[in-house]
Every structure is written in structure tokens, then in C-alpha cells.
Amino acid sequence: MLRWWRSAPSGFVRDERGAVLAEALIVIPVLTILTIGVLEFSNMLWQRQQMQIGVRDAVRYWSRCRPDFSSGACSLAVARNIAFHGNPAGTGPLRVPGWDDASELELVPATPPTAPQATDLVSGVGRMNYVSSPLFGALEISAITMSYSYSQRYFGW
After folding, report:
1. Which of 126, 107, 121 lies closest to 52, judged by CA?
2. Selected residue with higher pLDDT from 60 and 16
3. Assign residue 86 a region: left if phi > 0, alpha if psi is -120 to 50, beta otherwise?
4. Measured in whole angstroms, how far is the alpha carbon of residue 97 from the centre of its chain?
5. Cα separation, 41 vs 37, whole angstroms
6. What are phi and psi of 128, to 5 degrees?
7. How far apart are CA 12 and CA 74, in angstroms?
8. CA-based angle 27:28:29, to the nearest 5?
């Protein structure tokens, strides 16, 4: 009995049959967590970039509007449609999931100037709460608010 006890640890140390399984049990959870983190962070950056594009498009549109434009096409609703959907009609999918409330896009001035000066600026601020994946949402992290501001000189048409 005593002889087996002395030889068992050295045999156990030299035995490599379970090494791959032991290493996999350590590495797979770490790689899974890192992969999910990279994918979630990439999704967050994509949503912020889409929001930036929408804010810039709305400010560009608003900086070229004149209140005396005869067709009346210049309106905050059209600017918001351009920001949220990418087109003036407001049809099609949203640029960013969950970014569709009028309070999440602010354009200043609220009406284009009637007599524009060379120093007039149009500014836009977009805000939204990040819409996360179910895996990230399971961590119960408080809402991540993203915002972006953009200014451009007023041109008018």
C-alpha cells in the first residue's frame, strides 16, 4: 500500500492524457468572454457612427434651408426623417435601433434665419441610449448614453 502511494503522484504528473481537456476548460471561457466583449464594443461603435452620420446629414440639410422657400419642404420633421431614416420621407428602417424620438435630435436654430449672415451656424445634437445585445443586457449594466454634436455654417439655398 505504501509503495503505491509513493509512485502515484509521479505517475499522475507524467500522464498527459487529460492535458488538452484541462487547458480547454481554462481557455474557452476566457476567449468566449473576450469575443463577446469585442463584438459588443464593435456594435456600440457602429451605432454611434450611424448616429453621427444621421446628425451630420440633418445639420447639412438644415443649413441649406431658407424659411421663405416656396415649396415649404424645409421642416424639422424632414430633418429628423433624414437623421433617423436616411431619407426625407422617413421610410425604411431606422439607422440606429431605438433612435427615433424627436427629443433625441436637437437642431439650433429651430427656424432658419431669414437674413443669414456669414457667421450664422447651424448646430445639431443627437442623443440616444445604447441598445445592447441580450448577453450584455444580462449583466444589468446601467444604460449607456451616447451623444454627438455637429456644427456647420448656414448656407441657405
Report:
1. 126
2. 60
3. left
4. 9
5. 6
6. -160, 155
7. 79
8. 100
Q: Give the integer Cα–Cα distance in Å for 149 and 133.
A: 26
Contact in structure between 91 and 82 (CB atoms under 8 Å): no
Q: What is the reported pLDDT for 14?
A: 67
Whole-angstrom distance, CA of residue 72 vs CA of residue 94: 25
State how far the alpha carbon of 56 is from the alpha carbons of 12, 68, 86, 132, in Å: 65, 23, 11, 24
Identify whether the C-beta of residue 120 lies closer than 8 Å to the C-beta of residue 155.
no
Order of strands across the sheet that contains 145-153: 105-108, 121-129, 145-153
Give the global pTM: 0.78
The reported pLDDT for the residue numbered 25 is 92
Phi, psi of 129, deg, nearest 5:
-90, 135
Q: What whole-number percentage of the chain has pLDDT above 90?
A: 43
Phi, psi of 115 (to 5 degrees): -125, 85
Separation between Cα atoms, residue 106 and residue 147, nearest integer Å: 11
Alpha carbon 92 to its chain centroid, in Å, reads 19
Cell of 150: 455637429
